[in-house]
Design brief:
This protein is of the alpha+beta class. The chain contains 9 helices and 25 strands.
Length: 418
């Protein structure tokens, strides 16, 4: 999907959103203009107890480029009475596998891409800069927080403790020393800010939903990368909960993640081949590819189970038994991800109690929650579909059949969890 400049105006662009995920409950999301319009938007929203306890750690990175003596702000932020105009330099936004922003300042082209590292709380932002006719500087300003992703830090005064090691910084927010944020830009200079608050950032979608729409964020400092005239420059920003990030190459990360997503599309093999209608065929195939990639956003790995599970919705929800059963065929069977299909059945039958499939797990301690009468009934339907697609009766006999019998017995005699 590619959106050209004519559709990247403020009125239309602010309404369109994108998201990518890391397979353990974390995600990265924003609008196509780069302006965060929800409390849930962020460059690094990470689960502290995967996939639960998701926290906003890095809200975004604001970019500015100096060319000669002139500085151009590429970022877009919204406050109640002010909007920065970086979107005016945005030539296109595209998301096939990962989000790509193309900016143009005069003859200078800046291509920005974002990817998370699969199953790790790490996000990479890459920049390719070409067309410089004068020396310059790219300034990357991370904006951070440390809050549950459902909450807001309204009127909040941040306490930051920073440790700078050349081009890397460790930021401790509000005394959370056990969970510092690490950020790194190779061959850059990091300049620390003191008591710098982005006050009253405004989230349009929260206002539309009837919620209070403003909060404060912290601006710990900025990375500066010198640019030379005639040079084609490649730059990577890394944000992480892991300390050792100096060797991470964002361009390699993007290559690996793109290959992983392409492989999921190839396995699904849902494309049409209509030689007599090539345009219609391409439109359908592109749409199917987007759907298959979208399904992967909901698939998560639960380390404490050592099994995969399925989110009921992004960004709000964790894995729910009822919703997982409803989505099971479309996400796993039609796409031929049969090994994951087996794991999902194991996940939602491991904690059956009195015949009830858990409808979810606590976001605080991973405790199974039982509040759905039909999740267990939907399980029967999905096991039947699994057998039709795979003919794997042996797996069902060895792992699922006895659980199904226990559900029938408990439903016959009645269930009381009080």
């Amino acid at each position: 999907m590619k959106i050209e400049k004519k559709d990247l105006n403020l009125k239309d662009g602010i309404k369109k959103e994108w998201i990518i995920t890391n397979g353990i409950g974390g995600f990265c999301s924003s609008s196509i203009l780069g302006a965060n319009t929800r409390r849930y938007h962020g460059l690094l929203v990470a689960p502290l107890l995967p996939p639960a306890k998701r926290h906003l750690l890095i809200s975004k990175v604001d970019e500015s480029i100096r060319i000669g003596q002139n500085t151009y702000d590429l970022y877009t932020n919204v406050c109640e009475n002010y909007i920065s105009n970086g979107f005016k330099y945005l030539e296109s936004f595209e998301k096939n596998y990962l989000p790509e922003f193309v900016y143009k300042v005069g003859n200078v082209k800046i291509v920005k891409k974002i990817s998370m590292i699969y199953r790790r709380n790490i996000v990479c932002v890459t920049y390719e800069i070409d067309g410089l006719e004068e020396d310059g500087c790219l300034t990357l300003t991370p904006i951070v927080s440390f809050r549950d992703f459902h909450s807001l830090n309204t009127n909040h005064n941040y306490s930051l403790k920073q440790k700078i090691d050349k081009s890397k910084v460790r930021v401790e927010v509000d005394g959370n020393g056990d969970t510092p944020i690490y950020m790194y830009v190779a061959n850059s200079s990091y300049i620390e800010n003191f008591n710098d608050t982005f006050a009253n950032i405004y989230y349009l979608k929260e206002d539309e939903r009837g919620f209070y729409p403003e909060e404060n964020l912290a601006v710990p400092g900025r990375f500066e990368v010198n640019l030379k005239a005639g040079e084609k420059k490649k730059i990577t920003f890394v944000g992480s909960l892991e300390e050792n990030i100096e060797e991470i190459d964002g361009f390699k990360v993007i290559e690996i993640e793109t290959k992983r997503l392409k492989n999921i599309i190839d396995i699904a093999n849902l494309e049409l081949n209509l030689e007599q209608q090539p345009k219609k065929c391409k439109e359908f195939n592109d749409f199917m590819d987007e759907l298959v990639v979208a399904t992967d956003n909901f698939v998560i790995y639960r380390p404490n189970f050592m099994l995969h599970s399925l989110l009921a919705g992004i960004p709000w929800f964790l894995d729910w038994g009822r919703d997982s059963m409803i989505a099971y065929e479309g996400i796993f069977l039609i796409t031929k991800r049969f090994e994951l299909a087996r794991e999902i059945l194991l996940t939602f039958t491991r904690d059956i109690k009195f015949g009830l499939v858990p409808n979810g797990y606590s976001g605080f301690d991973n405790r199974p929650l039982y509040n759905s009468v039909d999740a267990s009934l939907l399980l029967f339907e999905q096991v039947n579909k699994f057998l039709k697609y795979t003919n794997d009766y042996e797996f069902v006999k060895d792992n699922i059949y006895d659980k199904l019998k226990s559900i029938i017995i408990n439903y016959q005699k009645g269930i009381n969890l009080d």
